Amino acid sequence: MNIWVIMGTRPEAIKMAPVVRALEEISDKVQVTVCLTAQHRELLDQVIRSFNLPVHYDLNLMTPGQTLVEITSRVLERLSHLFSEKKPSTVLVHGDTTTTLSAGFASYYQQIPIGHVEAGLRTYDKYHPFPEEMNRRLVDALSDFLYAPTEQAKKNLLAEHIEEEKILVTGNTGIDALLYIAEKPYRFEDALLERLGTERRLIVLTAHRRESFGSPMEEIFQAVADLVDKNDDIEVLFPVHPNPNVVASVKKYLQDKERVYLIPPLEYVPFVHLLKKCYLILTDSGGIQEEAPSLGKPVLVLRDVTERPEAVQAGTALLVGPHYERILDTAQKLLDDKDMYQDMANKSNPYGDGKAGKRIAGHLYKELSK
Ligand code: UD1
Ligand code: UDP
Q1: What whole-number percentage of the chain has pLDDT above 70?
Q2: What are the catalytic residues?
Q3: pTM over cut 0.85
Q4: Are 220 and 302 in contact (CB under 8 A)?
Q5: Structural domains of the chain ordered from first start
Q6: Residues near ligand 2 with C-beta < 6 Å?
Q7: What is the C-alpha to C-alpha distance for residues 361 and 272, in angstroms, rounded to an integer?
Q8: SS3 call for 62
Q9: Residue 348 — very low, low, confident or very high, per pLDDT cuts 50/70/90?
Q10: Separation of alpha carbons 170 and 161, rounded Å
Q11: Closest ligand to the CA of 69
């Protein structure tokens, strides 16, 4: 029984790490093969190092400024050859990236069963997020085992007439990784990271969505710049995503700004510990929307729609879009209004109990043994 785990980008590796570990725990019964497309190079390598993951194949496919067509076709072609030669028993993909979709197609064309981790997330808006919404819908349609992180995700799949027996609600594997890292004591090696959040209120910012490139992203950065000008007791940490479109806008609005710290993408472990000590998170990331409520941090989601409605319903996340006024006003309220802040910060974790990886490994073994 040879289970292949495919990873292309940072979030896939973080969220597949607990699955790999759980499969390794039953290594007397299954063999696990980790295959990197390396759609991301540096960001992926950081995670592989942090979790000390085994790597059996590395296709090394990233090129700077890659287009969707380029990376989609390269992953499809290279994985198709590899699957046809090595014949995995099943292929596990994660989430909604180009790697996810292309690996799904490559498996389907070889008639290899597909397991989709983090199945069933939907915004029902095909351009938000782009192209992730269509990637996950298409992969769900191709998949044989659908690992839904929440009951809501399962409902979405059932509404699309996906057979119930193919679906298992597992919790999000990202929470397995988060809880494991967050509960360990940690000291930052870097003096700036150690100091941040101790003298002023720390805001962590991330932004990288394709549909926000250009003016929406510039509105976000202008709002952050003005928020910092208005409040001398706050500071902002922004680990800048290496996508050239993000870097260009950041330079225009936030470069050399006092109390705004632009740093390269952080290793996962220090990043989690920074989230733990921040006051507020501003992000358009999918994964960070799940991590924030698990750490009791309010999050302003820099998008108009989200495929992760659970935290919004629980009241720990607010959708502010990439809109200057809404970002500035809402963030200011959360800085000024202690009651509003406490309401949002009240710990609630709608996304998992830290055992999702084990559930997936156990289920897959049972299914493949039939
Ligand atoms: C991808 C995913 C997105 C996910 C994000 C996580 C797609 C279509 N998008 O977006 O769903 O939220 O990853 O971060 O799959 N780059 C580097 N080094 C790296 C990574 C990226 O230099 O380690 C630069 C390169 O110039 C690369 C560009 O960023 O060409 C874009 O990378 P790509 O994977 O195509 O898209 P992301 O915007 O990172
Ligand atoms: N993350 C990290 N270092 C950073 C920023 C984010 O390790 O500097 C982690 C974060 O904790 C989360 C994941 O990366 O687990 C989210 O990745 P990203 O926002 O790139 O992608 P998305 O989740 O939006 O697909």
Answers
A1: 100
A2: 96, 118, 132, 208, 210, 241
A3: yes
A4: yes
A5: 2-171+355-368 (3.40.50.2000), 191-345 (3.40.50.2000)
A6: 10-11, 14, 174, 206, 208, 239, 265-266, 268, 271, 285-288, 291
A7: 25
A8: coil
A9: confident
A10: 20
A11: 1
pLDDT digits (tens, 9 = 90+) for 218-241: 999 999 999 999 999 999 999 999
Nearby residues of 51 by Cβ (< 8 Å), 6 or more positions away: 13, 14, 17, 21, 177, 268
- DSSP for 118-161, written as a single string: TTT---S-TTSSTTHHHHHHHHHHH-SEEEESSHHHHHHHHHTT
Q: If you measure from the C-alpha of residue 213 to the centroid of ligand 2, how many angstroms do you get, rounded to a whole number?
A: 18
- What sign for the dihedral angle of Cα 302, 305, 310, 314? positive
Residue 107 tokens, joined: 């498996």
291-304 pLDDT, tens digit each: 999 999 999 999 99
Q: Do residues 121 and 94 lie in contact, with contact meaning Cβ atoms separated by under 8 Å? A: no
Work out the average pLDDT over 162-171: 98
Please report which ligand is nearest the Cα atom of 264.
Answer: 2
SS3 325: helix
Give the containing element (helix H, strand E) for 281.
strand 280-283
